[in-house]
Structure to design on (383 residues):
């Protein structure tokens, strides 16, 4: 999981002794205490961007590209040479981090990834594989994610089923 | 109080130094490592010219020495799923070509997406998000492409001034790609002699799904 600070919020508490200069040991204690007290709250997404009901009419081995487009609309990404379509659903969830500190505390979110519906078509344009996956939040790894998914379907590491809810 | 003020001044100077060094532009042709990547087909050198204009007058697009110069450039490739990310270090062949708006970058082969923005006047996260919303331009180098001139982007808008002098476009009202392949060829010949043929594949505005291609697949 890669941490991405989405927003930092200053919830400063006014200093009680203005001008006071804490000593080195005191600063270390405060930092240590802040790290110990740091809290992380998982914020799962309530429901998928593309609900299962919308995927239900899609039958692997039967449904065509045109029908998929009618059901789901235009894909977000098309990998042409491999006949792969990706529908991005949005963030799969996030962790809310709270790090207390004196005089300032910090609150930030780290996204877990982006949920996608990913599918591959055969040369005739019929869907031959369809999955739900979580794409990396760091887009620099997106190409690797696509290649790994392709490799799975071709018997590579982690080769799995063709269930829409996989 | 005097000591505190001195610390603040030193901290400010340090921050300025980090900003200047962290986002410095590079004036040099590709190095040996980059050339070998290009020759091997693992990277494509993309050459383009940016011409921001206000009232018909060209403004220097790369006058600052920071990453978020008078213009910001974003690039996306197969590796990023087509999503454009800000080019951290803008590259130039020479100071002269830099003043004229010529810049180059290397990217993985396949379909590339470009976007252009006025300089950053907000926090880095917001600015990064703005690249995703900016109009997209697409160029698809062929499988044998090594050096590609993607066109001259002429951008008309309203100018405003920096606090310490210089002008930049604060908005983009019209964007148009022009073909200056002869000037591009001359630039490549001068700075990369013997680098091989340069192709001209003009970038086109992109709308709709992101189309990904990878050469060699």
């Amino acid at each position: 999981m890669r941490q991405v600070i989405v927003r930092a919020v200053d919830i400063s508490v006014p200093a009680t002794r203005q001008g006071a200069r804490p000593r080195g040991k005191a600063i270390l204690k405060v930092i240590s205490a802040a790290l110990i007290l740091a809290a992380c709250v998982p914020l799962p997404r309530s429901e998928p961007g593309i609900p299962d009901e919308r995927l239900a009419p899609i039958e692997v081995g039967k449904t065509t590209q045109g029908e998929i487009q009618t059901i789901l609309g235009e894909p977000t990404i098309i990998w042409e040479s491999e006949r792969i379509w990706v529908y991005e659903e949005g963030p799969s969830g996030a962790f809310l981090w709270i790090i207390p500190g004196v005089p300032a505390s910090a609150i930030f979110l780290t996204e877990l990834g982006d949920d996608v519906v990913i599918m591959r078509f055969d040369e005739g344009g019929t869907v031959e594989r369809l999955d739900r996956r979580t794409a990396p939040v760091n887009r620099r790894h997106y190409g690797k994610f696509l290649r790994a998914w392709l490799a799975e379907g071709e018997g590579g590491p982690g080769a799995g089923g063709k269930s829409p809810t996989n | 109080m005097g000591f505190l003020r001195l610390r603040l001044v030193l901290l400010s100077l340090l921050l300025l130094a980090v900003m200047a060094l962290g986002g410095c532009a590079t004036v040099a042709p590709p190095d040996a490592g980059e050339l070998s990547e290009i020759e091997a087909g693992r990277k494509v050198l993309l050459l383009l010219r940016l011409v921001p204009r206000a009232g018909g007058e060209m403004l220097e697009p790369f006058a600052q020495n920071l990453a978020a110069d008078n213009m910001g450039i974003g690039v996306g490739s197969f590796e990023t799923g087509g999503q454009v990310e800000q080019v951290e270090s803008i590259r130039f062949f020479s100071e002269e070509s830099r003043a004229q708006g010529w810049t180059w970058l290397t990217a993985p082969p396949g379909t590339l997406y470009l976007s252009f923005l006025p300089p950053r006047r907000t926090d880095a996260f917001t600015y990064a998000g703005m690249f995703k919303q900016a109009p997209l331009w697409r160029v698809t180098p062929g499988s044998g492409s090594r050096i590609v001139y993607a066109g001259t982007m002429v951008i008309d808008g309203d100018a405003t001034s920096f606090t310490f002098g210089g002008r930049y476009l604060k908005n983009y009202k019209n964007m148009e790609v022009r073909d200056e392949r002869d000037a591009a060829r001359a630039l490549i010949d001068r700075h990369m002699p013997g680098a091989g043929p340069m192709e001209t594949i003009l970038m086109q505005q992109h709308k709709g799904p992101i189309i990904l291609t990878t050469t060699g697949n």
In short: Residues 40-94+112-153 of chain A form a domain with the Beta-lactamase Inhibitory Protein; Chain:B, domain 1 fold (CATH 3.30.1450). Confidence is low (pLDDT under 50) at residues 1-17, 158-166 of chain A. Chain A has four helices and five strands. The helical segments of chain A are 24-37, 52-55, 65-72, 142-153.
